[in-house]
């Protein structure tokens, strides 16, 4: 039989066999990986028994094809391992991973070294093998396999945090263990020389190089996915290519750990790609990768398990004794990390506390799997290693892997039940009952409506409805017996639900095309930080995030600095447009959350909690409305354009859905649908072009708004205009600071500022047409007050050098400035108590320009300092 036929028959036969194993594992209530290992060993035994037996037919040819499969470690490492690692990392919630990054790093890195050295030194006491060979075996067994453990967790409903700890440990310890394995293998085959310091440096270099390579590759992939957006097959193919390219680039071109690189690139795609990859594709991408991961895990397990009977042919009682030593050493090392190092970590505040029941499950659930078997196979194929070392590693690793699978794996379910980790906490149980009661009442009502619609007999309907009534009664009796949830717990639970819902709504609006990718990324990231604050501090954490949620981004401040220092308007215009979209998106979601709170939260957690949460939402909504109103007043025309763009995106999405519904109903043909979608794409691209924002910084226009220049001749005015520079101040921005040298004066063309004068009970407010900052220039002294923008403030700036030149050149203007300064000094002189009036009473309303509301502004002769 031709080689290619052998491979096709063998692999396709294994895939056919694999398709029947998941339902069988569920029926037998054993972990899928354990069943895979058992079937693989059985196949290997059958192949060994019938090797060389003459026969014909597909079954005989299938067994011969498996016996003839050249399953090398390179095939497993380069074909299956990148897929296995990428799929596991892609499914990890990066935010939750970083919540427990301290314990995970201890388990993934420190535990790898502890396990390696514990096994290595223990074996060196009972065998004549060298210490490096024993350490090599320890590094192979230091990596854990989460497949079986997580499968049991999901079947039993184990706590989410426990699942994340196990997944995170396995994800990162694969990388650490393989990097350490590569280092020790090089030492054993004389490819590397040097002591412990050189080995540690090489390990760190491989690990850090893998992280950097993976991060760069992941970011490049997220950038390259933009041109193929809305092309599902191309987007998914790019991620598959990323897994293999990252592995090869790191291993063969950078000289770093390919495993670390693949894991890092997958974490980048998992965290960033959700908004870079088109929403319609993301769900399909996750499904495809789950399928690829299932194939990779199944085939790598079966192909290595088939080799087990051949590897264990020469096993003796000495090997059994050494295996017992490994079991004791590995268990003791893992217990030391879990019960010794993790408490120290939580005691120093570097990680959250892990309960003893979690530690017990993680101790017993440290199963070994496909990666350990693959590394052992790599050792047996290395011709530079002595045959006795190859046999030693193969037998011990294989024995230990199958010990963990058939002993630990089969009893893990019972341990979880014994520790009651499959049961809900009292708070979770109460929440379950409340949510279930709400759901059952709604379902009962809908069942009755369906029965009436289809004219079902009343007796038949009553038989179904009565079941829901009985379940509701049982839940009510349970709720009477359960302990009441404290108000603080209910508020914290409600806020966590609310923040999760907020993040979902941002993604929903992104999928609908209403929010742009950049805005969705920013708002979901802020929601993630808000959720962390709620978990840590409850309502205090939520309130602390009210203002930061609409705060200016660092990029906005950079754009403002570029405009102020270099006169670049375009970046600032883009960031203002971006901010407007943020504010509109936040306002829309906050209003939806108010409705969600009044209905769902009130029914589940009670009206008192709902009212408190509505108050918090109202505060956030008021802040957003205020910030949005300021932008609309400053740029009313642009606000209308952006609102039209916002609504236009939603309209295009509705059109697209309607066209596809018409095609599904066979009203329009596929050709017509294609033509309509082509027109939609054209209009969508036109809509995505950001309208130009006019910052209204035309010099002559701004000069015309300042009362100070009223009555000046046109020639003199033009001369002054050449010295002025326009500037936009953001709300809350400090324009002038007390104590700094006076290097400029400011003319307010639009907006308002407040002058914080020491000794005054209230700040002095200046509005459109007013001037500040001239006194420091006239007196050559430092500033004596802070000046802060109250809204978007357009100003004209005259620097000190030009000011002095203007004073020397224009005596009339100099007299005007001096009169203004003298009037302000007099306004700030102490007055007798009888007729002393607060500074706020001296302020009068100044006229507002450019859509600004009237503000309390001090006249030019009263109270402005700086």
UniProtKB/TrEMBL annotation:
Residue intervals passing through the bilayer: 6-25, 32-55, 75-92, 104-123, 129-150, 256-273, 294-317, 323-348, 360-380, 392-416
InterPro entries associated with the record: Cation/H_exchanger_CPA1, Cation/H_exchanger_TM, cNMP-bd_CS, cNMP-bd_dom, cNMP-bd_dom_sf, RmlC-like_jellyroll
Keywords: Cell membrane, Ion transport, Membrane, Sodium, Sodium transport, Transmembrane, Transmembrane helix, Transport
Membrane disposition: Multi-pass membrane protein
Compartments in which it is found: Cell membrane
SUPFAM superfamilies, per the entry: cAMP-binding domain-like
Chain spans, region Disordered: 825-866
Chief place where the protein resides: membrane
Cyclic nucleotide-binding domain boundaries: 708-814
Source species, domain of life: Bacteria
Pfam families for the chain: cNMP_binding (PF00027), Na_H_Exchanger (PF00999)
Low complexity bias spans: 836-859
PANTHER family documented for this protein: SODIUM/HYDROGEN EXCHANGER (PTHR10110), SODIUM_HYDROGEN EXCHANGER 7 (PTHR10110:SF86)
Protein name: CPA1 family monovalent cation:H+ antiporter
Lineage start: Bacteria, Pseudomonadati, Pseudomonadota, Alphaproteobacteria, Rhodospirillales
């Amino acid at each position: 039989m031709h080689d290619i036929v052998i491979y096709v028959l063998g692999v396709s036969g294994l895939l056919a066999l694999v398709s029947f194993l998941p339902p069988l594992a569920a029926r037998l209530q054993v972990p899928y990986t354990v069943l895979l290992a058992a079937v693989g060993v059985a196949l290997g035994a059958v192949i060994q028994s019938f090797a060389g037996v003459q026969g014909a037919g597909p079954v005989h040819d299938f067994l011969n094809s498996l016996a003839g499969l050249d399953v090398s470690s390179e095939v497993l490492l380069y074909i299956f391992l990148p897929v296995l690692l990428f799929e596991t990392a892609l499914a990890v919630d990066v935010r939750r991973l970083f919540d427990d990054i301290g314990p995970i790093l201890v388990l993934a890195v420190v535990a790898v070294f502890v396990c390696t050295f514990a096994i290595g030194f223990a074996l060196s006491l009972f065998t004549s093998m060298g210490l490096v060979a024993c350490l090599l075996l320890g590094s192979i067994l230091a990596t854990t396999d989460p497949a079986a453990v997580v499968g049991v967790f999901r079947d039993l409903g184990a706590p989410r945090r426990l699942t994340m700890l196990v997944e995170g440990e396995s994800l990162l310890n694969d990388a650490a263990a393989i990097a350490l394995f590569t280092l020790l293998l090089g030492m054993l085959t004389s490819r590397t020389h040097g002591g412990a310091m050189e080995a540690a440096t090489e390990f760190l270099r491989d690990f850090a190089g893998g992280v950097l390579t993976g991060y760069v590759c992941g970011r490049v992939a997220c950038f390259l996915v933009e041109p193929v957006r809305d092309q599902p097959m191309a987007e998914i193919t790019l991620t598959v290519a990323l897994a293999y390219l990252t592995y090869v680039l790191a291993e063969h071109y950078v000289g770093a750990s390919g495993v670390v690189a693949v894991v890092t690139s997958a974490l980048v795609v998992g965290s960033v790609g959700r908004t870079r990859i088109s929403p319609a594709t993301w769900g399909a991408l996750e499904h495809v990768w789950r399928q690829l991961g299932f194939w990779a895990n199944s085939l790598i397990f079966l192909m290595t398990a088939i080799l087990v009977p051949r590897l264990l042919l020469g096993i003796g009682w000495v090997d059994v004794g050494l295996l017992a030593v490994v079991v004791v050493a590995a268990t003791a090392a893992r217990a030391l990390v879990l019960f010794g190092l993790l408490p120290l970590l939580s005691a120093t505040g570097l990680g959250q506390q892990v309960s003893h029941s979690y530690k017990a499950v993680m101790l017993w659930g440290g199963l070994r799997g496909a990666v350990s078997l693959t590394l052992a196979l790599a050792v047996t194929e290395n011709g530079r290693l002595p045959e006795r070392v190859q046999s030693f590693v193969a037998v011990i690793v294989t024995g230990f892997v199958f010990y963990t699978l058939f002993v630990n794996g089969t009893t893990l379910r019972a341990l979880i039940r014994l520790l009651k980790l499959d049961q809900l906490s009292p708070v979770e149980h109460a929440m379950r009952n409340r949510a279930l009661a709400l759901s059952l009442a709604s379902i009962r009502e809908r069942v009755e409506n369906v029965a009436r619609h289809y004219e079902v007999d009343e007796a038949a309907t009553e038989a179904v409805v009565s079941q829901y009534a009985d379940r509701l009664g049982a839940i009510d009796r349970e709720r009477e017996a359960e302990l009441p949830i404290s108000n603080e717990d209910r508020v914290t639970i409600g806020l966590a639900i609310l923040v999760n819902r907020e993040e979902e709504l941002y993604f929903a609006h992104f999928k609908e095309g209403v929010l742009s990718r950049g805005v969705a990324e920013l708002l979901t990231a802020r929601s993630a930080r808000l959720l962390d604050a709620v978990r840590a501090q409850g309502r205090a954490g939520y309130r602390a995030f009210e203002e930061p949620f609409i705060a200016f981004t660092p990029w906005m401040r950079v754009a403002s600095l570029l405009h102020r220092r270099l006169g670049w308007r375009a970046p600032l215009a883009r960031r203002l447009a971006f901010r407007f979209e943020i504010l509109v998106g936040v306002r829309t979601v906050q209003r939806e959350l108010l409705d969600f709170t009044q209905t769902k939260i009130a029914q589940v957690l009670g009206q008192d909690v709902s009212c408190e949460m509505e108050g918090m939402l109202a505060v956030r909504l008021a802040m957003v409305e205020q910030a949005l109103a300021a932008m609309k007043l400053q740029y009313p025309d642009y606000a209308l354009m952006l609102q039209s763009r916002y609504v236009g995106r939603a309209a295009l999405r509705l059109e697209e859905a309607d066209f596809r519904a018409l095609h599904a109903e066979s009203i329009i043909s596929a050709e017509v649908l294609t033509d309509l979608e082509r027109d939609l794409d054209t209009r969508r691209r036109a809509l995505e072009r950001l309208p130009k924002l006019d910052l209204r910084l035309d010099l002559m226009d701004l000069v015309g708004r300042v009362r100070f220049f009223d009555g000046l001749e046109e020639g003199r005015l033009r001369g002054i205009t050449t010295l002025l520079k326009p500037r936009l101040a953001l709300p809350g921005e400090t324009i002038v600071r007390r104590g700094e040298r006076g290097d400029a004066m400011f003319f307010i063309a639009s907006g308002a500022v407040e002058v914080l004068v020491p000794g005054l009970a209230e700040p002095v407010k200046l509005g459109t047409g007013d001037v500040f900052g001239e006194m420091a220039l006239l007196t050559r002294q430092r500033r004596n007050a802070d000046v802060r923008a109250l809204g978007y403030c357009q100003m004209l700036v005259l620097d000190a050098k030009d000011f002095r030149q203007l004073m020397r050149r224009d005596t009339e203007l100099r007299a005007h400035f001096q009169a203004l300064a003298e009037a302000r000094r007099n306004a700030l002189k102490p007055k007798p108590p009888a007729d002393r009036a607060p500074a706020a009473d001296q302020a009068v309303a100044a006229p507002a320009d450019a859509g600004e509301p009237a503000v309390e502004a001090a006249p030019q002769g009263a109270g402005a300092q700086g």
